[in-house]
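Hi P.,

Sorry for the delay on this. The queue was packed all week, but I finally got your sequence through. Input first:
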Amino acid sequence: MGRKKAVKILAILPESIGGRLTTSSLIDGFRQNGCEVTVYDELFDTDLNDLLLKKYDYIAGYDFSGLKIKVQNKLDIPSVNYFSDDIRSKTSGPEWEKYIHYLENEDNYTFYWDRQLTEYENFKNINYLPHFVNFDIYKDYETKPEYDIMFAGRLDTDYRLNFFEELVLKLPHLKIAWYAIERHHQDARERANYPEIIDLCYMGFIDNEKDMAKAINNSKIVFNMNSQGITSLNYRTFQTVACKRLMISDFREELALFEGYMPYYEDMSDLLFKIESYLTDKEAYKMITEKCYNIAKQSHNSKDCVKYILKTIK
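Then the structure:
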């Protein structure tokens, strides 16, 4: 028998940092399943026309990025669209209203990270698919962390900013790292009650998988303030557990994915208590990180989740 022909995919790497990291795991998953992937980077590449001269079986992207290029260039190939932003919101793209009706077409496949939002939609080819990561990149480096706590993401609302400042003020004996793009750093420090705290914690921005894996490994605990969706857990959750670091999340129904092992906090006092407890109780820390790691590796790894995507679109 002849060798099976590789599926050829044009993958669109978007400009947004969150989108780039999520799409990287999608791309990794395609390659782990033997696909031939060509990447167009919206941030750095300038010439898409040469790439479009080649033939592809699918175009894949984050939110509307791939679908937009398909429509604009009248590509006669199916699209794979992974959303971890609300489809019906400018968070998924400023032109979402222009492109959303294309998700009704039979040759466009939508994979949505939030279970509840998926149930609200009736596109022909919409599927619920929580986040997944490449366990060959996100892994335990077995190094000693420099920081006790890490947060990655915007402090773009007063709630988030005030919450972060209060956390730092109440844990002066701990080292806390914050990662975000520079303009979000400047925005936060201009609005902050204590801009010196913002500057002290700010460690720069990360736009690639390997550096994010290093940053997570360099912290003992990562805490989350999920900002989108209704029931979902964000990408950081799965990055963290893959690195065998402790995630403490705000409450989300999809914490059930981790079978009750992942801790969550109800308010500031609860978060402070859990941080102090798990930094002290090394046995509990190890038990939780091992359990969450094993669950994620089994059900949220890029190879198997993209294999599900490939089976669905075929």
